[in-house]
């Protein structure tokens, strides 16, 4: 026999509707603390497109705003307008066209704050979770004003219900409006006519992953009031670092409006990374220095223009796989209250969510209205906000049809034929947490992918953990085993050794275990598979030998990345040895742990690493053989037997099949610049210098015989990571066939001179 509370919950009985709410029916509400009899503006029919709130000139030349909201199963929709004091006016959207509720309100101008209340059935067992007591954010809101706190009032169910296993079925009728942000009407008045997009070809790209707030928050040359903002990233001091480093694109961690999770707020923390989106059209308001009543939109556009003027593209890390509403016990902020069944993937019982993301819910991209929401958002950021591409978080979740990952899914098909989106840079994080979700190498042409197999192979080589070098050979030369199909090219591989998720480059050589205690999760969060090596001491040390080895390993990793075929991705601060103190999951560390420490450049070690990074990026830009547009053939290109790619043992002999299967700490890679596929813009053949790259991960110096004819008569040493500082390295040349000493755990980059 169930308890009385359980029986009440199973009947869907929640708290009684407050007397005031019963007194004011649809379109008769007098407003939150509003004056009795306050006048309401009329609602004209308006139009069902475009979705969202769009300021325009209406009938008879009257200025106002058209509001349109898709809410497929709703019984009615109220538009809620808020004045500066928070007083609310509710207006019924009486027009319904193809499941879109719409109306034109004369006199509503940019800066107006608004939200929706959507009426319908409360039946969680079938996925119906309408609750008009909850003010809902417009999914198409161009700007958001206010912060998301998560008191009990913002939950559609009674969060503190005594029987927690049925709490999500008990409706909470308390008003959430005082506790949630509001959408803001924005004036779209920018045609980008004066903007010049860099349009950097994929093969020539060098990506720099950064956090808008974290990159600028501690920068001493950015005015304090601009630090941590879009305007701060547009400041000449920030641009100067990017330009001198030579990166061609910044990949911004999420800048869509996001919310903080309840479990973080309870621990006094915040979601720092931003992978908890709730507004796919709105730039995150907390990163605005100019205001949040729509000013954030203009500030973001000015940032994009400044980056474009500096020759740098803007790529957004976007999170369309899930939202901040979490699972059935999460808050009701937007989509859940508009049409839960229409927006989210639900399990067969309808009450619970299908979770392929590990975040509680998954957007149902197969549904036309969800696909429209995502593609409308993407086009908006390209055409009206000026961005140049996207990195899709957990992209495999977007590629699922009903359940399985499907590379012919509606989402991928729509992107492929869209005249706007097929022209921008598209990067997949090619996995999710569901069954069959690991899809590295499987995304179709037009797409590039984060290549975690590159990351793992390079990490394992430099820590001495590779059983053989077969996998490393593929990774250094463009990962043809993954991408040489369907017309894909080497630049389909986004090569990275570190990303925001995991150790920084410095922590990779300083820690073998994660140290995430500050996250408040008992150090259980974050991966345990770091593939790192602490060089003999865990964490910071005063031992000069250990620190010297760590600096050398940083140089090795950075050099390997920037001479590999594919598109390199650097992480902000890695070029100067930023540390997170061993935290490999700093998603909630909105402080010095997560921010770039610019004071590092007061030290000779970090300055030297930054100088090396600049040299290597510059070398890459000058030499097309390092950024090939086609895979190597490995076959002889002429009568002399010279091939475009060759591999050598330390004896100076070409590697045999047996060598690939043996464990080795030394590998030579020859890149021929004589026969590079393709032609330049004028149709002329592309030729370049040839290079020999020697990687030695052994603990003692090694003798390497540089190959002679036909490969080369002489070589010039450009980079020797064994030397510190690099600026003191003497110019050295070596004859073909000569034995060269390669320092313990080091890389040599040699250019063929004869």
Short description:
With 754 residues, the protein is α/β, with parallel strands linked by helices. Helices cover 21% and strands 19% of the residues.
Which SSEs are present, and which pair or pack?
Elements: H1 4-10, H2 19-23, E1 52-57, E2 63-70, E3 76-82, E4 88-92, E5 95-97, E6 100-106, E7 113-119, E8 122-123, E9 128-129, E10 143-145, E11 182-184, E12 207-210, H3 212-216, H4 230-233, H5 236-245, E13 249-252, E14 256-258, H6 262-266, E15 277-283, H7 295-309, E16 313-318, H8 335-343, H9 368-383, E17 389-392, H10 395-398, H11 410-417, E18 425-428, E19 447-451, H12 452-462, H13 470-476, H14 480-483, E20 493-495, H15 505-508, H16 544-563, E21 567-571, H17 604-622, E22 645-648, H18 657-661, E23 666-671, E24 676-679, E25 685-686, E26 691-696, E27 702-705, E28 714-720, E29 733-735, E30 739-742, E31 746-752
Parallel strand pairs: 12-13, 12-21, 13-16, 16-17, 17-18, 18-19, 19-20, 20-21
Antiparallel strand pairs: 1-2, 2-6, 3-4, 3-7, 5-6, 7-11, 8-9, 10-11, 14-15, 22-23, 23-26, 24-25, 26-31, 27-30, 28-29, 28-31
Helix pairs in contact: 12-13, 16-17
């Amino acid at each position: 026999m169930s308890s009385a509370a359980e029986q009440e919950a199973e009947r869907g009985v929640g708290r009684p509707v407050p007397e005031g709410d019963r007194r004011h029916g649809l379109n008769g509400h007098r407003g939150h603390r509003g004056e009795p009899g306050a006048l309401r503006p009329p609602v004209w029919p308006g139009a069902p497109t475009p979705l969202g709130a769009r300021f325009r000139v209406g009938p008879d030349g009257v200025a106002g705003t058209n509001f349109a909201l898709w809410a497929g199963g709703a019984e009615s929709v109220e538009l809620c307008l808020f004045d500066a004091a928070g007083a609310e006016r509710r207006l019924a959207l009486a027009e319904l066209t193809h499941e879109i509720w719409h109306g034109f309100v004369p006199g509503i101008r940019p800066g107006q704050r608004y939200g929706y209340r959507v009426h319908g059935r409360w039946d969680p067992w079938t996925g119906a979770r309408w609750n008009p007591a909850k003010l809902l954010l417009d999914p198409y809101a161009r700007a958001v004003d206010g912060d998301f706190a998560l008191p009990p009032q913002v939950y559609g169910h009674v969060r503190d219900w005594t029987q927690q296993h049925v709490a999500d079925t008990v409706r909470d009728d308390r008003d959430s409006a005082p506790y949630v942000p509001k959408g803001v009407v924005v004036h779209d008045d920018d045609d980008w006519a004066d903007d010049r997009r860099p349009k950097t070809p994929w093969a020539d790209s060098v990506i720099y992953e950064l956090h808008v707030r974290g990159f600028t928050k501690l920068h001493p040359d950015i005015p304090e009031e601009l630090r941590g903002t879009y305007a701060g990233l547009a400041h000449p001091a920030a641009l100067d670092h990017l330009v001198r480093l030579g990166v061609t694109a910044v990949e911004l961690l999420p800048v869509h409006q996001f919310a903080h999770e309840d479990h973080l707020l309870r621990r006094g923390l915040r979601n720092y990374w931003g992978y908890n989106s709730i507004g796919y059209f709105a730039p995150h308001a907390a990163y605005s220095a100019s205001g949040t009543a729509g000013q954030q939109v203009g500030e973001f556009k000015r940032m994009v223009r400044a980056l474009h003027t500096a020759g740098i593209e803007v790529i957004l890390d976007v999170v369309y796989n899930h939202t901040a509403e979490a699972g059935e016990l999460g808050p009701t902020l937007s989509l859940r209250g508009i049409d839960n069944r229409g927006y989210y993937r639900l399990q067969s019982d309808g009450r619970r969510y299908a979770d392929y993301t590990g975040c509680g819910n998954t957007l149902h991209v197969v549904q036309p209205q969800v696909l429209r929401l995502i593609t409308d958002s993407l086009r908006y950021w390209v055409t009206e906000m000026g961005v140049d591409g996207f990195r899709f978080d957990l992209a495999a979740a977007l590629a699922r049809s009903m359940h399985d990952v499907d590379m012919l899914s509606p989402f991928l098909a729509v992107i492929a034929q869209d005249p706007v989106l097929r022209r921008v840079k598209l990067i997949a994080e090619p996995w999710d947490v569901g069954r069959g979700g690991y899809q590295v190498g499987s995304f179709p042409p037009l797409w590039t992918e984060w290549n975690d197999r590159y990351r793992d192979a390079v990490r394992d080589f430099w820590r001495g953990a590779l059983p053989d070098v077969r996998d490393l050979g593929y990774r250094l030369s463009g990962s043809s085993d993954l991408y040489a199909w369907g017309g894909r090219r080497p630049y389909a591989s986004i090569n990275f050794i570190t990303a925001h998720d995991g150790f920084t480059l410095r922590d990779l050589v300083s820690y073998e275990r994660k140290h995430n205690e500050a996250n408040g999760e008992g150090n259980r969060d974050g991966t345990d598979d770091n593939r790192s090596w602490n060089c003999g001491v865990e964490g910071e040390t005063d031992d000069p030998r250990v620190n010297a080895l760590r600096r050398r390993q940083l140089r090795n990793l950075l050099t390997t990345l920037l001479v590999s075929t594919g598109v390199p991705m650097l992480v902000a601060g890695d070029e100067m040895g930023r540390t997170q103190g061993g935290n490999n999951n700093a998603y909630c560390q909105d402080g010095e742990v997560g921010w770039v420490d610019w004071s590092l450049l007061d030290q000779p070690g970090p300055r030297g690493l930054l100088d090396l990074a600049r040299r290597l990026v510059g070398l890459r830009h000058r030499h097309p053989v390092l950024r090939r547009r086609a895979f190597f053939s490995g076959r002889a290109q002429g009568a002399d037997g010279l091939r475009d790619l060759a591999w050598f043992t330390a004896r100076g002999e070409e590697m045999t099949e047996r060598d690939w299967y043996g464990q080795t700490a030394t590998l030579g890679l020859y890149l021929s610049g004589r026969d590079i596929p393709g032609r330049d813009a004028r149709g002329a053949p592309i030729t370049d210098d040839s290079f020999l790259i020697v990687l030695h991960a052994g603990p003692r110096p090694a003798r390497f015989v540089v190959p002679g004819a036909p490969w080369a008569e002489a070589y010039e040493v450009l980079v020797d990571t064994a030397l510190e500082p690099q600026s003191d390295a003497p110019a050295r040349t070596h004859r073909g066939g000569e034995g060269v000493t390669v320092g313990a755990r080091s890389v040599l980059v040699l250019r063929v001179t004869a």
